[in-house]
Design brief:
This protein is of the alpha+beta class and 150 residues long. The chain is built from four helices and five strands, in the order E-H-H-E-E-E-H-E-H. The protein has helices at 14-24, 30-41, 96-110, 125-133; strands at 5-8, 46-52, 58-67, 79-87, 116-118. A five-stranded mixed sheet has the order 1-2-3-4-5, sandwiched between helices. The longest helix has 15 residues, at 96-110.
Length: 150
């Protein structure tokens, strides 16, 4: 194998996939990430892609789902929604994230989608720049509020 290899995730990837998820979303435990990844595999409206380096080490992933509810800034349904993407720091700036997003796009097209969407925390300017660089257009900014009533 030469260079990174991207493939759809399956049960054999759960351990390394969970570890990559934990690197992106550190608030969850490794066990929680494992369970969420396993649940995603059981769905027909979601997919994940895992990238391995030339030595077979998992270095990146992207997750996507079909969203049938309203997706901010979109006009159609379903929408191919990029739920998360992560590339190990040592593997960044080599086009791997773009290749992962392209795999998600192709999956979404195959599922009948004509639009792709994503989101990022309002303070995550690095993610905003990444999305803009690969062709996403910002549609709106939202601040969520909560009030306890009980």
């Amino acid at each position: 194998m030469s260079g990174p290899h991207i493939a759809p995730a399956d049960a054999s990837h759960l351990g390394e996939w969970a570890a990559l998820r934990a690197a992106l979303w550190p608030d969850g435990s490794l066990e929680e990430h494992w369970e969420e990844a396993a649940a995603m595999l059981a769905q027909d409206h979601a997919i994940a892609f895992i990238a391995h380096d030339e030595h077979g080490r998992a270095i990146a992933f992207a997750e996507a789902s079909l969203r049938h509810d309203y997706v901010n800034g979109c006009d159609t349904s379903p929408v191919c929604f990029l739920e998360g993407i992560f590339v190990q720091p040592a593997a960044r700036r080599a086009g791997l994230a773009v290749a992962l997003v392209d795999q998600v796009r192709l999956w979404g097209q195959g599922m009948g989608c004509t639009e792709m969407a994503s989101d990022a925390d309002i303070a995550n300017v690095e993610s905003h720049a990444f999305h803009a660089a690969i062709g996403f257009a910002e549609t709106e900014r939202v601040v969520y509020f909560r009030k306890l009533i009980g």
